[in-house]
Specification:
By secondary structure, the chain is α+β, with helices and mostly antiparallel strands. The protein contains five helices and 15 strands. A six-stranded antiparallel beta barrel has the order 10-13-12-11-14-15. Strands 3-4-5-2-6 form a five-stranded antiparallel beta sheet. It has a four-stranded antiparallel beta sheet with strand order 1-7-9-8, covered by helices on one side. A hairpin with a 2-residue loop joins strand 14 and strand 15. It folds into two domains: 154 residues, Probable tRNA modification gtpase trme, domain 1 (Gyrase A, domain 2, 2-Layer Sandwich), CATH 3.30.1360; 67 residues, Elongation Factor Tu (Ef-tu), domain 3 (Beta Barrel), CATH 2.40.30.
Protein backbone atom coordinates (compact mmCIF):
# COMPACT_ATOMS: atom_id res chain seq x y z
CA UNK A 1 0.00 0.00 0.00
CA UNK A 2 1.18 3.52 -0.77
CA UNK A 3 0.07 6.29 1.60
CA UNK A 4 1.16 9.88 1.01
CA UNK A 5 0.47 13.04 2.93
CA UNK A 6 -0.71 15.68 0.50
CA UNK A 7 1.25 18.68 1.78
CA UNK A 8 0.06 20.83 -1.10
CA UNK A 9 -3.59 20.39 -0.12
CA UNK A 10 -5.57 22.01 2.71
CA UNK A 11 -9.12 22.22 4.07
CA UNK A 12 -11.85 24.83 4.30
CA UNK A 13 -14.89 24.16 6.50
CA UNK A 14 -18.32 25.60 5.76
CA UNK A 15 -20.83 25.48 8.59
CA UNK A 16 -24.27 26.83 9.42
CA UNK A 17 -27.91 26.20 8.46
CA UNK A 18 -27.34 27.48 4.91
CA UNK A 19 -23.94 25.84 4.36
CA UNK A 20 -25.09 23.12 1.99
CA UNK A 21 -27.59 25.15 -0.02
CA UNK A 22 -25.11 28.02 -0.31
CA UNK A 23 -22.28 25.87 -1.69
CA UNK A 24 -24.68 23.82 -3.81
CA UNK A 25 -25.85 26.93 -5.63
CA UNK A 26 -22.29 27.81 -6.66
CA UNK A 27 -20.45 24.60 -7.57
CA UNK A 28 -20.75 22.11 -10.41
CA UNK A 29 -21.85 19.09 -8.40
CA UNK A 30 -24.89 18.31 -6.23
CA UNK A 31 -23.80 18.28 -2.57
CA UNK A 32 -27.18 18.74 -0.83
CA UNK A 33 -27.42 15.09 0.24
CA UNK A 34 -23.72 14.39 0.65
CA UNK A 35 -23.31 12.13 3.68
CA UNK A 36 -20.43 11.32 5.98
CA UNK A 37 -18.14 8.88 4.18
CA UNK A 38 -18.95 10.39 0.78
CA UNK A 39 -17.16 12.95 -1.37
CA UNK A 40 -17.55 14.62 -4.75
CA UNK A 41 -15.16 16.42 -7.06
CA UNK A 42 -16.49 19.82 -8.09
CA UNK A 43 -15.47 23.15 -9.53
CA UNK A 44 -16.22 26.81 -9.04
CA UNK A 45 -16.44 28.36 -12.49
CA UNK A 46 -16.54 31.75 -14.12
CA UNK A 47 -19.90 32.78 -15.62
CA UNK A 48 -18.45 31.67 -18.97
CA UNK A 49 -17.90 28.14 -17.65
CA UNK A 50 -14.12 28.31 -17.21
CA UNK A 51 -12.51 26.64 -14.19
CA UNK A 52 -11.43 29.00 -11.42
CA UNK A 53 -11.01 26.37 -8.68
CA UNK A 54 -11.39 22.62 -8.41
CA UNK A 55 -11.79 20.79 -5.11
CA UNK A 56 -13.07 17.70 -3.32
CA UNK A 57 -16.08 18.20 -1.04
CA UNK A 58 -16.52 15.83 1.91
CA UNK A 59 -19.86 15.29 3.62
CA UNK A 60 -20.36 15.18 7.39
CA UNK A 61 -23.20 14.22 9.70
CA UNK A 62 -23.80 17.88 10.52
CA UNK A 63 -24.65 21.08 8.63
CA UNK A 64 -21.01 21.25 7.64
CA UNK A 65 -18.84 20.47 4.64
CA UNK A 66 -15.09 20.07 4.34
CA UNK A 67 -13.61 21.36 1.08
CA UNK A 68 -10.15 20.16 0.08
CA UNK A 69 -8.26 22.33 -2.40
CA UNK A 70 -4.70 23.34 -3.17
CA UNK A 71 -3.31 25.03 -0.07
CA UNK A 72 -1.85 28.12 -1.73
CA UNK A 73 -5.21 29.05 -3.28
CA UNK A 74 -7.50 28.20 -0.37
CA UNK A 75 -7.61 31.81 0.98
CA UNK A 76 -8.60 32.98 -2.53
CA UNK A 77 -11.35 30.36 -2.65
CA UNK A 78 -12.59 31.51 0.74
CA UNK A 79 -12.71 35.12 -0.47
CA UNK A 80 -14.56 34.07 -3.62
CA UNK A 81 -17.21 32.25 -1.57
CA UNK A 82 -17.56 35.29 0.70
CA UNK A 83 -18.31 37.44 -2.37
CA UNK A 84 -21.45 35.38 -2.92
CA UNK A 85 -22.46 34.96 0.73
CA UNK A 86 -24.71 38.00 1.13
CA UNK A 87 -27.20 37.09 3.91
CA UNK A 88 -26.64 33.33 3.86
CA UNK A 89 -26.16 31.84 7.33
CA UNK A 90 -22.83 30.19 6.71
CA UNK A 91 -19.38 30.56 8.22
CA UNK A 92 -16.13 29.73 6.43
CA UNK A 93 -12.96 28.75 8.29
CA UNK A 94 -9.59 27.29 7.36
CA UNK A 95 -8.56 24.05 9.09
CA UNK A 96 -4.73 24.07 9.14
CA UNK A 97 -4.64 21.54 12.00
CA UNK A 98 -6.02 18.80 9.73
CA UNK A 99 -3.88 16.85 7.29
CA UNK A 100 -4.95 15.10 4.08
CA UNK A 101 -3.66 11.70 3.03
CA UNK A 102 -4.12 9.70 -0.15
CA UNK A 103 -3.68 5.98 -0.52
CA UNK A 104 -3.82 3.57 -3.42
CA UNK A 105 -3.02 -0.01 -4.48
CA UNK A 106 -4.62 -1.61 -1.41
CA UNK A 107 -7.84 -1.46 0.63
CA UNK A 108 -8.59 1.82 2.38
CA UNK A 109 -7.78 2.36 6.04
CA UNK A 110 -10.66 2.82 8.48
CA UNK A 111 -12.35 6.20 8.13
CA UNK A 112 -11.08 6.82 4.60
CA UNK A 113 -13.30 8.02 1.75
CA UNK A 114 -13.14 6.77 -1.82
CA UNK A 115 -11.66 9.27 -4.24
CA UNK A 116 -14.76 10.47 -6.12
CA UNK A 117 -13.09 10.87 -9.50
CA UNK A 118 -11.91 7.38 -10.33
CA UNK A 119 -11.77 4.07 -8.40
CA UNK A 120 -8.13 3.55 -9.40
CA UNK A 121 -7.22 6.82 -7.68
CA UNK A 122 -7.75 5.10 -4.32
CA UNK A 123 -8.94 6.94 -1.25
CA UNK A 124 -8.62 10.06 0.89
CA UNK A 125 -8.22 10.33 4.67
CA UNK A 126 -8.51 13.47 6.81
CA UNK A 127 -6.96 13.53 10.26
CA UNK A 128 -4.16 14.80 12.43
CA UNK A 129 -0.67 15.03 10.94
CA UNK A 130 0.65 11.83 12.44
CA UNK A 131 -0.12 9.01 10.02
CA UNK A 132 2.76 6.81 8.89
CA UNK A 133 3.43 7.37 5.19
CA UNK A 134 5.09 5.11 2.63
CA UNK A 135 5.07 7.54 -0.28
CA UNK A 136 5.43 11.21 -1.11
CA UNK A 137 3.44 13.96 -2.77
CA UNK A 138 5.63 13.29 -5.80
CA UNK A 139 4.53 9.62 -5.83
CA UNK A 140 0.90 10.69 -5.61
CA UNK A 141 1.31 13.13 -8.51
CA UNK A 142 2.92 10.49 -10.71
CA UNK A 143 0.15 8.02 -9.85
CA UNK A 144 -2.48 10.64 -10.65
CA UNK A 145 -0.83 11.65 -13.93
CA UNK A 146 -0.58 8.01 -15.02
CA UNK A 147 -4.38 7.84 -14.73
CA UNK A 148 -4.88 11.16 -16.52
CA UNK A 149 -6.56 12.86 -13.55
CA UNK A 150 -6.00 16.64 -13.23
CA UNK A 151 -5.92 18.51 -9.93
CA UNK A 152 -5.22 22.14 -9.12
CA UNK A 153 -4.15 25.18 -11.08
CA UNK A 154 -0.85 23.70 -12.30
CA UNK A 155 -2.88 21.24 -14.39
CA UNK A 156 -6.09 23.15 -15.02
CA UNK A 157 -4.98 26.77 -14.89
CA UNK A 158 -7.09 29.68 -13.64
CA UNK A 159 -9.90 30.96 -15.86
CA UNK A 160 -8.23 29.14 -18.73
CA UNK A 161 -9.95 25.81 -19.45
CA UNK A 162 -13.64 25.19 -19.81
CA UNK A 163 -14.81 22.80 -17.11
CA UNK A 164 -15.53 19.95 -19.50
CA UNK A 165 -12.06 20.30 -21.03
CA UNK A 166 -10.77 19.00 -17.67
CA UNK A 167 -12.83 15.82 -18.27
CA UNK A 168 -15.21 16.72 -15.46
CA UNK A 169 -18.01 14.95 -17.36
CA UNK A 170 -15.94 11.73 -17.31
CA UNK A 171 -14.56 12.08 -13.76
CA UNK A 172 -17.81 12.69 -11.89
CA UNK A 173 -17.10 16.39 -11.57
CA UNK A 174 -20.45 17.77 -12.72
CA UNK A 175 -24.16 17.11 -12.27
CA UNK A 176 -26.40 17.75 -15.27
CA UNK A 177 -29.58 17.42 -13.19
CA UNK A 178 -28.94 19.60 -10.13
CA UNK A 179 -30.03 22.93 -11.60
CA UNK A 180 -28.25 26.26 -11.65
CA UNK A 181 -24.70 27.07 -10.59
CA UNK A 182 -22.16 29.60 -11.76
CA UNK A 183 -21.18 28.75 -15.36
CA UNK A 184 -23.93 26.15 -15.72
CA UNK A 185 -25.39 27.43 -18.99
CA UNK A 186 -22.24 27.11 -21.09
CA UNK A 187 -21.24 23.83 -19.43
CA UNK A 188 -24.62 22.21 -20.13
CA UNK A 189 -24.66 23.53 -23.70
CA UNK A 190 -21.23 22.03 -24.43
CA UNK A 191 -22.29 18.67 -23.03
CA UNK A 192 -25.64 18.37 -24.77
CA UNK A 193 -24.27 19.59 -28.10
CA UNK A 194 -21.15 17.43 -27.85
CA UNK A 195 -18.93 20.46 -28.32
CA UNK A 196 -15.90 19.40 -26.24
CA UNK A 197 -13.18 19.84 -28.83
CA UNK A 198 -10.14 19.79 -26.49
CA UNK A 199 -9.42 17.67 -23.41
CA UNK A 200 -6.65 17.20 -20.87
CA UNK A 201 -4.95 13.88 -21.52
CA UNK A 202 -2.01 11.94 -20.11
CA UNK A 203 0.99 11.75 -22.43
CA UNK A 204 4.28 9.86 -22.29
CA UNK A 205 7.14 12.33 -22.64
CA UNK A 206 10.73 12.00 -23.84
CA UNK A 207 13.63 13.84 -22.24
CA UNK A 208 13.51 17.33 -23.69
CA UNK A 209 15.98 20.17 -23.28
CA UNK A 210 13.72 22.78 -24.83
CA UNK A 211 10.98 23.62 -22.34
CA UNK A 212 8.48 24.55 -25.02
CA UNK A 213 4.95 23.44 -24.13
CA UNK A 214 3.69 23.46 -27.71
CA UNK A 215 2.58 20.09 -29.10
CA UNK A 216 2.66 19.76 -32.86
CA UNK A 217 1.36 17.33 -35.46
CA UNK A 218 3.50 18.05 -38.47
CA UNK A 219 3.16 21.77 -39.10
CA UNK A 220 -0.11 22.06 -37.17
CA UNK A 221 -0.60 22.91 -33.50
CA UNK A 222 -2.32 19.99 -31.77
CA UNK A 223 -2.21 21.16 -28.16
CA UNK A 224 -0.04 22.22 -25.25
CA UNK A 225 1.65 20.59 -22.28
CA UNK A 226 0.23 21.86 -18.99
CA UNK A 227 2.21 19.93 -16.36
CA UNK A 228 4.78 17.18 -16.05
CA UNK A 229 5.97 14.61 -13.50
CA UNK A 230 9.00 12.64 -14.65
CA UNK A 231 8.06 10.90 -17.91
CA UNK A 232 4.32 11.64 -17.79
CA UNK A 233 2.52 14.90 -18.47
CA UNK A 234 -0.97 16.29 -18.76
CA UNK A 235 -1.58 17.98 -22.09
CA UNK A 236 -4.55 19.81 -23.53
CA UNK A 237 -5.06 18.11 -26.90
CA UNK A 238 -7.40 18.79 -29.76
CA UNK A 239 -9.57 15.72 -30.17
CA UNK A 240 -9.16 15.60 -33.94
CA UNK A 241 -5.42 14.87 -33.49
CA UNK A 242 -5.67 11.85 -31.17
CA UNK A 243 -4.68 9.41 -33.90
CA UNK A 244 -2.05 11.64 -35.46
CA UNK A 245 1.71 11.61 -34.73
CA UNK A 246 2.54 14.15 -32.02
CA UNK A 247 5.77 15.92 -31.13
CA UNK A 248 7.06 18.32 -28.51
CA UNK A 249 10.34 20.15 -29.05
CA UNK A 250 10.89 17.94 -32.10
CA UNK A 251 10.58 14.65 -30.16
CA UNK A 252 7.77 12.12 -30.37
CA UNK A 253 5.23 11.83 -27.58
CA UNK A 254 2.45 9.29 -27.14
CA UNK A 255 -0.99 9.47 -25.55
CA UNK A 256 -1.59 7.20 -22.56
CA UNK A 257 -5.02 5.89 -23.46
CA UNK A 258 -7.49 5.75 -20.54
CA UNK A 259 -10.45 3.38 -20.66
CA UNK A 260 -12.54 5.77 -18.58
CA UNK A 261 -12.09 8.62 -21.04
CA UNK A 262 -13.84 6.82 -23.93
CA UNK A 263 -12.73 9.19 -26.71
Amino acid sequence: MTIARLEGRALLETAGPDARSFINGLVTHDILNLQSGQAVWAGLLSPQGKALFDFIVFGTNEDKLLIEAEATRLPDLMRRFNMYKLKAEVTLSLKPQLAIYAGWEEAAIEGAVADPRLPAMGWRFIGQAQKAVTGSMHDYTHHRFSLGVPEGSADIGIDNLLWLETNADKLNGVSFTKGCYVGQENTARMFHRDKVRKRLMAVRLPEIENQSSLIMSGSREAGSLHSQCLDIGLALLRQDYLDAPLEIAGKTISIIKQSWLDV
